[in-house]
Amino acid sequence: MLRLGVQPNVVAFSTLINGLCKQSNFSQAVSLFDEMVEKGYQPNLIAYNIILNGLCKAGDTDRAVRFLRMMEERGFKPNIVAYGTVIDCFCKKGLLEEALALFSKAKVNGNRPNIFMLCVIWDNKVRMRKQGIEPDVVTYSILVNAYCKDGMLSKARDVVDTMRKQGIEPDVVTYTTLLDGYCLQNKMGKARKVFQLMIKKGCAPDIRSYSALINGYCKAKMLDEAMELFHEISQTGPTPNSVIYNTLMQGMCQIGRVSAACEVLRLMLASGQVPNRVTCSILLDGFCKSGKLKEALKLFLAMRNSGLELNIIFYNILIDGVCKAGDIEVAKELFHEVNGLKPTVYTYNIMISALCKEGLPDEAYQLFRSMGDNDCLPDRISYNVIIEGFFRNSYTTKATELLAEMVGKGFSANLCTSILYVDLLLRCNESTLI
């Protein structure tokens, strides 16, 4: 390349460095990396990881650690691959204390341990103990958290069992992490057992423990169990916070028990907790989805009069509810109020769909074409909504034109639009045959 007067780029250097590493020419690979830097090229994360991998294969942990520091000094934040490579090298050389220290640093720097890194640390626990290095509750909790987030609950439970065998009692963070892991997989029986176990072991659940279990019950639609636990903490546990109240109200609204959600709101107010915007949006959405438009509008006006800063989400919820109830005029009024907040694509799509359903395709088209004026370009859903509306209102020519325009912009028709278009083609063929 150089003889031809062609200057190599970072990709070319990285490819050559990778090739040298694969041939175990590590010293030559490092020299080429240094030459690359001297010539003013800025190595990317891939180039750094290639060199790190090469140094670790050569067993040069000191230089690998220096490379990690160099990456940070040059503004490159080492990723989980970089940390995992060096940790693996430390473990293979028996430098387990250094491996644990780097593992902790990776966590502090915002890297979530992957399965490879977890296996490296976990598989070396026996060698760690032989060298007098005993993982503490923090290290074990990190492992439990990582396994839970990757859905490997049996592994997480093994870690907790190992802790106890080693005489290290799990703390509230460890138990809550495992409990939440079970909740995320809808294994509420096992989550409850972990909760009961921590109490039995003298580890008092904190507000996060209760919040995780209540959230799990709500997502599993086990609202009676969620309320039972709520009453339990109201009497003996930590004071319920707004997160717990909001979680309960969300759960109630999702199964249509809006009256029960309102009762939870009354309990929240009685406890001295102040409802926030999340609380109000949950109730507003609950009223709209259960067809209680009067209550929804009353709540909306109360929020606006109270000085609560209403964002576009509140308007979207109410406009959608009003449109589904068939009150297009009220929806129009609300939409015009939105202008100060700047409607989103979702806001436009709600209105366009409603106008088409009410037999007002011309108004829908006018609104569709005005989206660009508000710096809100139509998306795939916008096109499909108006094309479907035109087909259903027998605006077949306009629908076909918009279909071609949509495809030209790189959007695709959804199933409903496709069926309506095919139906049109079949009807046209039939009329030709007749």
TrEMBL record:
Q: Where would I find the PPR repeats?
A: 9-43, 44-78, 79-113, 136-170, 171-205, 206-240, 241-275, 276-310, 311-341, 344-378, 379-413
Protein's UniProt keywords contain Repeat = yes
List the Pfam families: PPR_1, PPR_2
Which terms are listed as keywords in the entry?
Repeat
Q: Which PROSITE patterns match?
A: PPR
Residues forming coiled coils: none
Native organism: Hibiscus sabdariffa (roselle)
What the entry lists under InterPro entries is as follows: PPR_rpt, TPR-like_helical_dom_sf
Record-given protein name: Pentatricopeptide repeat-containing protein
Is Phosphoprotein tagged as a keyword?
no
